[in-house]
Specification:
The complex is a heterodimer of chains A (about 120) and B (about 110). In chain A, strand 4 (about 30-35) and strand 5 (about 45-50) form a beta hairpin. Chain A is mostly beta strands. Chain A is about 0% helix and about 50% strand. In chain A, the strands form 2 sheets. In chain A, strands 2, 4, 5, 6, 9, 10 and 11 form a 7-stranded mixed β-sheet that branches. By secondary structure, chain B is an all-beta fold. In chain B, strands 2, 4, 5, 9, 10 and 11 form a 6-stranded mixed β-sheet that branches. In chain B, strands 1-3-8-7-6 form a 5-stranded antiparallel β-sheet, with no helix packed on it. Chain B starts with a strand and ends with a strand. Classes of the chains: A mainly beta (about 120), B mainly beta (about 110). The interface of A and B includes residues 45, 59, 101 and 103 of A.
Chain lengths: ~120, ~110
Amino acid sequence: EAGVTQFPSHSVIEKGQTVTLRCDPISGHDNLYWYRRVMGKEIKFLLHFVKESKQDESGMPNNRFLAERTGGTYSTLKVQPAELEDSGVYFCASSQVAGVQDTQYFGPGTRLTVL
Amino acid sequence: GENVEQHPSTLSVQEGDSAVIKCTYSDSASNYFPWYKQELGKRPQLIIDIRSNVGEKKDQRIAVTLNKTAKHFSLHITETQPEDSAVYFCAASESGGYNKLIFGAGTRLAVHP
């Protein structure tokens, strides 16, 4: 079974630019989550999709962040315009069944550096 | 909301020794507590989890204990090996949420041969 994949693995951009991160969850997984780890701190929740619907976006820092999951398959997270404090590792995770506290499988992350 | 504190932030042991990592949580209604291991350059991987209806769970050299009254849970690794070296994260589910996990800050474990 293929795991969660993320693209790109690294991204270096300048402040004010736009970056789009992509996550492909495990096939058949209804739940898709975005998390972020900044500067060696804790992994922080950003948002949660159930299929194509945003279930919980309470962790999104501000309106510069936009997440989508069209068709309920892959998801994108766009940062526009990027700021220095957006640097960190962005993880995507997926779990199988909606409404059940199930194992979350993580992707390898995208390391974003904003200069 | 839920808050998870994890200690220590770094831990250095000799091969063969035991390692213990402790976490406390604030939301007494949390009911799911996973532990993830992240090796350098790799993805976080679930190594063990425990639900609030049990007090202890073991899987070979790894065990997790949960004290609901005190709101803390611990990871125990026995007979440590160099390949156990990694960053370990504890997490707690947020009650009333939809599977949202709240993570601790991580513990960097170094096992020296």
